[in-house]
Design goal:
Blueprint lengths: L2 H8 L13 E5 L5 E10 L2 E19 L7 E11 L2 E6 L5 E12 L7 E4 L5 E7 L2 E10 L1 H7 L2 E4 L8 E10 L2 E15 L6 E15 L18 H12 L15 H12 L2
Antiparallel strand pairs: 1-3, 1-13, 2-3, 2-13, 3-4, 4-6, 4-7, 5-6, 6-9, 8-11, 9-10, 11-12, 12-13
Length: 271
């Protein structure tokens, strides 16, 4: 079968284009972003709760369905790191317990599925089922009677059960700059197998991140006129006949008839 004949016959499959957005990676503003983490220590001598805060750094990658007037947001990836946190639990004459949280990070686990939520007219959004992984080490020690009960414990947060979370926030796009304000809840619990002490973590990471609106990719615009029209089909055929780079629509580094199907998909996606 002549591949060019096949390509010509398939041209009728081309449909009207629709809009296609691109992911945007935003940098966390450390001066406006922080983690608040509360630790509850439940021991045989009672439970106590203390909290601490630290600055956050990192990135978040999002995708808006429309960067001019978004109605949907997808959280593609995120990775935040925190400064050290420290806690002192005072059990009066029974002694004290100290805890430190180091190497804290919150982010998308490997292979996480992007999650999408709606954006209202004022830019407020909620995204459910966001996969989350909290890592870091909590070291616990004590003095006096309570110190003898608690002993010296280490909890590796990465070994705790990780559940999907719901995140909420606000998105703003002004003058080509995206600003995302997002709240990521934190909730984990672990038990020291030797002492039975239960450590419960509750808090949130509050993130403000900014970045430029991404440049739109448009492989279907083969003739480079900034539009996606049927004339791009003729341009693609020309690229196919000459083996020009614009022929490679599926990104495999080759110019083959399969690139026609890829071009149709890119055409239907639009720019």
């Amino acid at each position: 079968m002549n591949p060019k004949t096949t390509i010509a016959g398939l041209a009728a499959a081309v449909c009207a284009p629709t809009a296609l957005a691109q992911p945007a990676t935003l940098d966390v503003d450390e001066s406006q972003s922080s983690i608040f983490l509360e630790i509850e220590l439940d021991t045989p001598l009672g439970a106590q709760t203390e909290d601490d805060t630290a600055a956050l750094d990192g990135t978040i990658t999002i995708e808006l369905d429309d960067y001019d007037n978004p109605t949907a947001i997808t959280i593609v990836d995120y990775s935040f790191t925190s400064g050290a946190l420290s806690y002192v639990f005072d059990y009066s004459f029974l002694g004290t317990v100290t805890a430190s949280a180091t190497g804290l990070s919150l982010g998308s686990p490997a292979g996480a599925t992007p999650a999408t939520g709606t954006v209202d007219g004022s830019g407020v959004f909620t995204v459910d089922n966001v996969e989350s992984a909290v890592t870091g080490i909590v070291d616990i020690g004590g003095t006096g009677t309570i110190g003898g009960i608690v002993g010296s414990s280490t909890i590796d947060l990465s070994t705790l059960e990780q559940q999907p979370i719901s995140v909420s926030g606000m998105i703003d796009v002004t003058s080509g700059t995206i600003t995302a304000s997002v709240d990521f809840p934190i909730s984990n619990s672990g038990t020291d197998p030797d002492t039975g002490v239960v450590v419960t973590l509750t808090g949130s990471a509050t993130v403000v991140a900014t970045g430029p609106v991404p440049e739109e990719e448009c492989p279907a615009d083969v003739n480079g006129d900034g539009l996606v029209t049927p004339t791009d089909f003729s341009a693609w055929v020309g690229a196919f006949n000459t083996g020009a780079p614009e022929c490679d629509q599926n990104g495999d580094g080759m110019c083959t008839p399969t690139d026609f199907s890829a071009w149709v998909g890119n055409y239907n996606a639009g720019c």
